[in-house]
Write a structure and sequence with these properties.
alpha/beta; eight-stranded mixed sheet
Length: about 290
């Protein structure tokens, strides 16, 4: 069977997924649904977003270079019980942005502005990879907006303390190649300029401190694959420095937990949102 790349997600440490032709990412209506798709004027650009379902609001945030359709397995599942809000982040998907700069803080403030525009005071949040970084920053920069947070494949720093060394070196090489290409082109296309921004972002950001993690007050579920592009010990570091957190390292899993571990991922995150957070200490540790 012919295999083609249906999605390149430039995630915390860049990786490429190659799926068989006809994968749901290619065919799903999510991310291009004219019945629900809208644009919001957000902080100097038009942010494309879609909403599904009814109930308490749930914001889902995709990874670097991704789009709404990355959550083809989560949207219908969570829309049964939540109002799912999902947007293409700045300079990704249908949210075109021709400015030169791009940062996680910028994208996080975009999401906060979208919630304000939708008159949503607080919501549940799921973030994958760069979306996980944005989820952490949303809880740090706009703590009133996040009821509970679930992040998978997030990192605090763009170096080999966090990222698998092979992945880090591959990503940095890819970034150098595209930056060199950008310099050689007299009039680079908007697409090339956008790619360069995204590669630069994943290569040199984020820079979230332990002290910032200590300020996160919402209950947080920190998730990672045991063979993620992010080191499991880095995922543990994040969880251990958020006061009200649970840690879930998924066995036999890489970075794409919402895809290849979708059933487990959906059930565990759903239970985390639905059940009261409990402090586990003293004799509770024997349970």
């Amino acid at each position: 069977m012919k295999r083609i790349p249906t999605l390149i997600i430039l995630l915390s440490a860049i990786t490429q997924f190659v799926f068989a032709q006809g994968h749901p990412f290619d065919t799903t209506l999510y991310g291009r649904n004219p019945a629900v798709g809208k644009y919001a004027d957000i902080r100097g650009f038009k942010m494309y977003y879609e909403t599904y379902g009814k109930g308490e609001p749930l914001l889902i945030i995709h990874g670097n270079g991704g789009s709404i359709n990355n959550f083809v397995y989560q949207i219908p599942y969570f829309a049964k019980n939540y109002q799912v809000i999902i947007a293409d982040s700045r300079a990704q998907g249908k949210s075109i942005d021709d400015k030169d700069s791009l940062s996680y803080e910028m994208m996080t403030d975009d999401l906060n502005a979208l919630l304000d525009k939708l008159n949503l005071k607080a919501c549940y949040v799921i973030g994958w990879s760069d979306g996980g970084i944005n989820g952490l920053l949303l809880a740090i920069r706009h703590p009133d907006k996040v009821k509970k947070l679930a992040v998978t494949g997030a990192n605090l720093t763009p170096d080999t303390t966090a990222v698998d060394p092979w992945v880090y070196n591959w990503a940095m090489g890819a970034n150098k190649a595209i930056q060199d290409s950008l310099k050689k082109v007299k009039n680079p296309s908007p697409e090339l300029k956008t790619q360069a921004k995204l590669y630069h972002l994943l290569s040199y950001e984020p820079h979230i401190t332990i002290a910032q993690l200590h300020t996160i007050t919402c209950p947080t579920l920190v998730i990672g694959g045991d063979h993620d592009v992010l080191k499991p010990e880095h995922t543990m570091l994040i969880a251990h420095n958020i006061p009200n957190s649970y840690l879930w390292i998924i066995p036999n899993s890489g970075h794409s937990t919402p895809v290849f571990k979708k059933d487990q991922f959906n059930q565990v995150v759903s239970d985390f949102f639905a059940q009261p957070f409990r402090k586990i200490e003293k004799f509770g540790r024997f349970d």
